[in-house]
Every structure is written in structure tokens, then in C-alpha cells.
Write a structure and sequence with these properties.
Layout: E1 3-4, H1 9-13, H2 25-29, E2 31-35, E3 41-46, E4 52-59, H3 73-80, H4 93-114, H5 121-139, H6 146-153, E5 157-163, E6 168-175, H7 179-191, H8 198-214, H9 217-229, H10 243-248, H11 251-261, E7 267-273, H12 277-288, E8 311-317, E9 322-329, H13 337-347, H14 354-362, E10 366-375, E11 382-390, H15 396-413, H16 417-433, H17 438-452, H18 457-460, H19 470-480, E12 486-493
Parallel strand pairs: 1-5, 3-7, 8-12
Antiparallel strand pairs: 2-3, 4-6, 4-7, 5-6, 9-11, 9-12, 10-11
Helix pairs in contact: 3-11, 4-5, 7-12, 13-16, 14-15, 15-19
Length: about 500
């Protein structure tokens, strides 16, 4: 099963960029909400056209909520949420429980020895062998993947999860006559988590980091541009976290993190499809009322200081050269954020966009170009990325020169009314198409609920795109797309390094 480390960005951004002339009254009239006494909110979007129900559990916790030593724990915890409970996924939970305690005690000894000034490597190896034996014994009590398999036997599809710097989401669909099964299963994993196969899954995550980051040039590049661009804010750390953190996170760390962040007031549950309000209320009360109330996570107070000069890094890889430029921009809460989605269309989205037409179609200097607002998240001040892959015989320096030239043209003359109108139309068409997915719409509503304060604010912001003017684009580019405000990452071929 796929678990996306990086935020399901395209599904959440639409909530803040839709057009005012689209009639959302039917959608809004089919949305209802209620909140349990413990503070857990449910948002229901009814659609009785087919006997299917889609479910999204949104936790207001991600990589930004982590601290030194446990970076990557949000993603690790996401994996653990599929490992079952004291009832699901085990042949004998009591036997497992005893082994958990033994494994934790041995791992604590390993960490203590590692932390000594002169660690005894042989002692660590001996302890690791003991831990490995216990892992093998614990595996004999596991009904592997029972949580997932049970749901799939009852028709579950699209089972997935995603961790970002801002949030963690859990997603799947079921036939609508299986809603009670969903309520039981989903509530169980957030009220009765036991973090089964904790030490075995660590190896899976380590391998995931190797595949996604360490053995992939673009993965290393994305990680490096974050640490380059951000000096203070938690956005500087990749979602999967450093390998040394993955190596040393404990089950006790996981338990504390879960109890702090997976609480009723820090989560919201969304349902779309063939489900009725009274039906959902009854099941929510029956299965989710025992969740600890807790509190909603406060916004992080750390503010990234103003960047005073251009930063750059070059990675030398056996890879196609790539250029990535990141400019600091405000969060989705700021009125300027939506304007960057319009700028994306003008710069790189579509054959008539400025950079694509210039670099890919006319001059053929680039294989591809892109731009994106909101990396690695949009809850806090973030990055606007512009990237290009040069064609053979062309360089990243050429890419940067062309990008700068096109940006300077907008700084000088802005864009025409016709160009802006076309960009708005393209954006509206592409965004409205996404409404074919109730799941995508639901994630946007949940994101608005947690980040903006209410799911209804997603619709309040729909008119924002219509208000964008050529003067706005002119001011936007002059304000944010400056050399002192940017960080540049390049990948260059190893054989081209000058010796």
C-alpha cells in the first residue's frame, strides 16, 4: 500500500483558489457538521448517487510539530496506525505485550550504551542480536496486515495515508452498508493503538528514506533546499526525518507523541457519500466518544527571519542536471498566497505559459519547467518553487538566466489583461475538474477547518481569484521574487566537475 510522505498538495490547494462564478450552493447545502462532547468534529458531505462512502481522518499534526531527536516521528506514527490494535492483528496480545516490554528494555540499554563517551560496540552488537530474536518471537503472534486485509475483504478501496509538515491524513472508501465497520476500525486505531511491529517497521522506514531521499538525486535536492532556505523554522527538516532520528526513536517517544497529538480536539473526521447525518451521529457517539479530549495544537511561534542574501548549493550526481529556485512567501492565511497560484499558470502551466513557451517549445533549452506555491507546506510562511530541467547541451546557468529574464519582464511591465484573464480561466477549469472527486473536496474542507478555523472559509475564499489584478501580479513579483529572498539548488553531473 502506498503511503505518501509528502502532502497531498493538489487536493488541498483547490479550496483556496476556486472561482466565484461556480455555483457551490448545492455542495454547501449537502454539508452538515456536528461535534461530540469530547471535541471531535465530523463533517459530512452527502451524495446518495452511488452506494459508496469515503472517509478521511485529518490529524492536525505533522513534521512541524516535532522536536530535535524525534524528527520523522509523525511519518513513523502514520505507519504504526495500520498495525492493528489489542484485538486486531494479534494471535495473543498478552504474549505480545510481554515481548514489547522486553524489547523496549533492551533498546533502552542500546541507547544508553550509544550515548556513552566510549560506546562498547561489542555490547551493542550483543544487545542488537537479543532484540532481533525477540522481534522474531513477537512476529509469531502477529496476524500480518490484518487491519488492512479485514477492511479490503469488506470492499475497502483507495486505502492510503499521507504525512506532511502540516498534517497527517488517513483515507479509504467502503460500500455504504459498511459504515459501522469503518466507525469501529477507525476509532479503534486511535483509541487502542499498541504500535505492533515497532522495531520491524523502523527498518521499513529506514529503507523508505534510502529510496526516497538518499538514493534519489531529486530527493536529496529537495531535502537540501529546505535546510538551505530555512534557518529557524521546522520546515527546514524533511518529513521522513534524519536517519539518526529514525534509528533512535523509542516506543515511549511514540506513545507520548500520540497521546499529545492524536486527541479529539486536534482531529477532524470527514465523510462523503451515501451516509445520512443521523446515521453518522449515532455511530460517532457509539465508537468515538471514548477518545481523549485533549486540545488543538497551537500554531508554532517560531518565525523564519528575513533572508538577507541569496543562498545556493550544488549537488554533484550521476544524474540529469536540475535547477530549483525557492523564494520565501507567506502562508495560505495571507491574501497573497492565492496570487501565486495564478502566477503558476502564467509562468509554467500550459503551452502558452511564459517559461514553458520560451524554454521548452521555442528555444528547446529545457526538457521541462514547473512552479509551485507551498513547499513544504502552507500553514506557515513557505516557499514558492520554480524548477527546470535543461536539455542536453544546456546548463542550469542558462535555465536561471532565462527564469530571471522572464521575472524581470513582469517586474517591469506586469502581465497583460488578456494573459491574466486566460490564466484565471485555465486555473478555474483545472480546479473545477477536481470537484469530480468528493474525497479531494473533503480534504480541502478539513484543511480549511483546521488551518483557517472553519470548513466554510474554504468557500469564503473562492472569490479571491477573481479579484487578482495585473497590478497584484506586478507587485507580487517585485515583492517576493528577489535575489536576496531566494535559495538555489542545483544538480550537476559528476563528470562535469572541474578538477
Amino acid at each position: 500500500m502506498k503511503r505518501q510522505i509528502y502532502v497531498l498538495v493538489l487536493l488541498v490547494l483547490f479550496s483556496f483558489t476556486l472561482s466565484a462564478d461556480f455555483d457551490f450552493s448545492k455542495i454547501k447545502n449537502n454539508i452538515s457538521e456536528f461535534t461530540l462532547p469530547n471535541g471531535l468534529k465530523f463533517i459530512l458531505l452527502e451524495d446518495h448517487s452511488v452506494p459508496i462512502a469515503n472517509f478521511v481522518t485529518y490529524a492536525n499534526v505533522g513534521g512541524s510539530d516535532e522536536r530535535i531527536g524525534i524528527y520523522g516521528i509523525s511519518h513513523f506514527l502514520e505507519h504504526m496506525a495500520f498495525k492493528g490494535t489489542s484485538e486486531i492483528g494479534t494471535k495473543s496480545y498478552q504474549a505480545e505485550k510481554k515481548l514489547f516490554a522486553k524489547m523496549d528494555a533492551i533498546f533502552d540499554k542500546i541507547l544508553i550504551e550509544k550515548g556513552n563517551m566510549n560506546p562498547d560496540k561489542e555490547k551493542i552488537k550483543t544487545l542488537e542480536k537479543e532484540l532481533e530474536k525477540l522481534k522474531e518471537e513477537a512476529a509469531t503472534h502477529v496476524v500480518e496486515n490484518e487491519f488492512i486485509n479485514l477492511l479490503e475483504r469488506h470492499g475497502a478501496t483507495g486505502m492510503n495515508a499521507g504525512t506532511s509538515k502540516d498534517m497527517t491524513v488517513y483515507i479509504y472508501s467502503l460500500p455504504s452498508n459498511k459504515v459501522e465497520l469503518w466507525a469501529y476500525m477507525e476509532s479503534s486505531r486511535f483509541t487502542d493503538p499498541i504500535f505492533r511491529e515497532f522495531y520491524r517497521e523502523r527498518g521499513v522506514i529506514q529503507e523508505e528514506r534510502r529510496v526516497v531521499v538518499e538514493n534519489t538525486p531529486i530527493g536529496k535536492m529537495l531535502e537540501r533546499i529546505l535546510s538551505l532556505a530555512f534557518a529557524a523554522h521546522p520546515y527546514r527538516i524533511s518529513i521522513v526525518g534524519p536517519m539518526s532520528n529514525i534509528d533512535n526513536i523509542t516506543r515511549a517517544d511514540m506513545t507520548r507523541y500520540f497521546k499529545t497529538n492524536y486527541t479529539a480536539r486536534n482531529m477532524v473526521v470527514g465523510v462523503t457519500g451515501d451516509v445520512y447525518p443521523d446515521q453518522l451521529k449515532k455511530l460517532a457517539k457509539k465508537y468515538f466518544s471514548t477518545m481523549i479530549s485533549g486540545k488543538k495544537n497551537h500554531r508554532i511561534l517560531t518565525v523564519e527571519p528575513e533572508q538577507l542574501g541569496e543562498k545556493s548549493i550544488t549537488l554533484y550526481e550521476d544524474s540529469q542536471p536540475i535547477l530549483l529556485v525557492g523564494y520565501h512567501i507567506p502562508s495560505v492565511l495571507h491574501e497573497d498566497f492565492v496570487k501565486f497560484n495564478v502566477l503558476n499558470i502564467i509562468l509554467t502551466n500550459g503551452r502558452s505559459s511564459r517559461l514553458r513557451k520560451k524554454m521548452v517549445i521555442d528555444d528547446k533549452t529545457a526538457m521541462g519547467v514547473l512552479s509551485f506555491a507551498g513547499y513544504p507546506g502552507n500553514k506557515y510562511s513557505t516557499l514558492y518553487l520554480i524548477g527546470a530541467v535543461p536539455n542536453s547541451g544546456h546548463s542550469t546557468d542558462e535555465m536561471l538566466k532565462t527564469i530571471d529574464e522572464e521575472i524581470e519582464k513582469i517586474k517591469k511591465d506586469s502581465v497583460s489583461e488578456e494573459e491574466l484573464a486566460a490564466a484565471k480561466t485555465r486555473l478555474k477549469v483545472s480546479i473545477i475538474r477536481q470537484l469530480g472527486s468528493n474525497r479531494g473536496l473533503l480534504i480541502g474542507l478539513l484543511h480549511a477547518e483546521m488551518v483557517l478555523g472553519s470548513w466554510q472559509k474554504a468557500f469564503d475564499n473562492l472569490a479571491a481569484i477573481e479579484k487578482v489584478t495585473t497590478d497584484d501580479i506586478h507587485q507580487l513579483v517585485n515583492t517576493y521574487l528577489t535575489k536576496t529572498n531566494r535559495s538555489i539548488a542545483r544538480i550537476e553531473k559528476k563528470e562535469e566537475v572541474k578538477k
